[in-house]
């Protein structure tokens, strides 16, 4: 109870007076710097001395010097003032050159494999003191709840039927194509819709509970289904699986083009019409007005635009 009572008697103004008096080593100079009358500073110093149980500032010749206790308080007081300034400054503006914000981004690697590496490089170049966390979109990720709780700032991916309390901004659209091994029979003889449906497919593990994926949702709407014989949570590993098997990966052209020439794979047109894949960034109302979050979303949009302009 004593500690709580002591805490209740301390306010930010007292901390500011404490730091100014200790660094100026003069009540009169501190008053000028604070824009206060000298008696007001003297009264605040009296309160501080009572709280600390120490004189804090004592006379030495013609001037004044901090006591040992006072010297130990200089940096903690400065830290409190810096934290208080940051607490409210971030809501009004964001300076990437000095910010130490932690950005938390949830994304799957079914995006262009260059996207996340380029995004991290861009963020560190623009805001070198920030920290960046890339979170996976796993089946137990519950990204909607994590956005609401502030555990992640942005989710990047492609979905339909999103919850109405999320904000959404399109990053780019992409054509649906098929990635197959270079020696896949369909490369030589082509395929029909029936051939494609009956073939062996590889697909990503669903990114959240109940997710079907946009390819299979579209097929469901047509009363069709494909034969998925392999699933993998690590989308970036799937092209290598395709290169060594008869598996078919159906996804965006931009992702597939990154592997042509690097692996023994080739791109075939899908044998049926699919709507374009639309990649979005999603965020919660919680962070909608945040200056730091707005800056992050702008950088995500800029990096996505660079990829779209130069898919190779």
Please, could you describe this protein's structure?
It is a single chain. The strands form four sheets. The chain has a five-stranded mixed beta sheet. It is built from 13 helices and twelve strands. A hairpin with a 2-residue loop joins strand 1 and strand 2 (63-66). The longest helix has 25 residues, at 68-92. It folds into three domains: 2-92, Arc Repressor Mutant, subunit A (Orthogonal Bundle), CATH 1.10.10.10; 102-172 and 278-309, 3-Layer(aba) Sandwich (D-Maltodextrin-Binding Protein, domain 2); 176-275, 3-Layer(aba) Sandwich (D-Maltodextrin-Binding Protein, domain 2), CATH 3.40.190.10. Helix 2 crosses helix 4 (38-52). 30% of the residues are buried. It is rod-shaped and about 100 Å long. The mean pLDDT is 87. It is of the alpha/beta class and 312 residues long.
Provide keyphrases for this structure.
single chain; 312 residues; Arc Repressor Mutant, subunit A; D-Maltodextrin-Binding Protein, domain 2; 3 domains; 12 strands; 44% helix
